[in-house]
User: Fold this.
Amino acid sequence: MRETQIIDRIRGLARVRHPSVVRGIGDDCAILRPRPNEDLVFTSDFVLEDRHFTLETHTAARVGHKALARSLSDVAAMGAEPVFCLVSLAVPAARGARWIQRFYKGFLALADQFAIPLAGGDLARFDKVVVDVMCCGRLPRGEAMLRSAAKPGDRIYVTGQLGEAAHSAWRRPLLPEPRIAAGVALRRLGVVAAIDLSDGLSLDLARLCRESKVSAELSANLPVARGASLDDALHGGEDYELLFAAPSGKRIPAAIGSLRVTPIGVITRGHPGQVKLDGRPIPTKGFDHFA
Amino acid sequence: MRETQIIDRIRGLARVRHPSVVRGIGDDCAILRPRPNEDLVFTSDFVLEDRHFTLETHTAARVGHKALARSLSDVAAMGAEPVFCLVSLAVPAARGARWIQRFYKGFLALADQFAIPLAGGDLARFDKVVVDVMCCGRLPRGEAMLRSAAKPGDRIYVTGQLGEAAHSAWRRPLLPEPRIAAGVALRRLGVVAAIDLSDGLSLDLARLCRESKVSAELSANLPVARGASLDDALHGGEDYELLFAAPSGKRIPAAIGSLRVTPIGVITRGHPGQVKLDGRPIPTKGFDHFA
Assistant:
């Protein structure tokens, strides 16, 4: 099958319309018509064979879902609503047109949940499966939640449960659910400091602290998922929950919809990026590609 | 070296400011503040080791240049000015921090030419070098040049010369120059139909014709680069020139700045996507990853 035929099939699948996306697949670029008084946010994230998944544990549809979910999770962390996405996909010749179609079906099933169009991207042959997803989100001007906005005295919260992905890991890979609704709700509550948990609580909290030039003290009552260890919860990664900080005077609900919100510590003055548990610095053992 | 240290170095290199990019590297997403009455265009393009370059023929800096140039060429084809870019880079462990830094230096040298910031992306280890560049451009609302806007009777033009990249190919790889200034000039002249030549004249013209539901007749006087063959010019690819169509009554200058503009044929009614040379259909032999 030729590239044009495959792209025609993808175009057929990617039919979701969005009023702001005036042109999608089929030109040199996708075209977005921004609305007044909005900011746009952009992220791109790899999902690489044998780094983020294996072809043994992940079906093509699951690879597609995971690839989009990773980028949507970053959009959620800003408090934005997704608008559209681009996907660059490279696949080995051994994976036929059917694998590619199943990938897009998994990808588009998640895109449809958020009513966002796949507006373009790239498609190529390569030795291994490579996916890079760019996602664009929108929010009212100046209201993005930032890694750099945490202040000493803020309480630290996390959505959902931690460590489940690490616990079940390669045996039974989870389909991450991007916390878009929670991110928008938190932004509307006036939360200004947030990050998503992709590489593990210890590493991602350290990143938030580093950008905010603060430290953090975790309490012992982390919302550890059933069956997971404290180590899974602290360092496991792939939870795709939201971690955020808010002034102690701000009322944060115990749940957003059915999603639990747990206070897990406080932001403190101190060495920027340092995270303590029970008063002792913890190593940032989360997933570092280059460590 | 850890990921955070490498990213700190990249942040140090990527210091170009842009008034519309209110946040760059360092958060979950980059933030763009759109201006009134503009459309934004988006493209993402792979540059893959042993598909688009080899480590023997391309230095790290050349890989960086080429990766950004490919995306900028798509922005040029819409008649847009670039605003910012994201780059996702995966590199084998054998390529150290120095290779990565040289890649970014090559990438950012070209970004600086267009005064656009590198606003984010991703960084990972992988078996081979993988680059995916997302580039955003802007233009006045509704004025994008499109593949789908060519009409029967339009004259077909091309900027620059064809076949040079194919002719010199792997022996002496060229540094492509994205035709941003030419794209903007053509859009301001009122040109509405264009595509960039990345995969070869025969294939890219067929794409433009397919999207516009028209055919094309090429004349014999193609601007073939010195040393290149007609075959290189027709099917070679990697020229990164602009191909466009304009009504026969519209005055198109013979050059834009020092860049030659050559009329090379006419748009005709007929089988959508068919391209003829001297009255005979030519095969679309350009670069198809899946052929």
Observations:
- Chain B touches chain A through 67 residues (CB under 8 Å).
- The CA atoms of residues 152 and 268 of chain B lie 4 Å apart.
- Chain B has a mean pLDDT of 93.
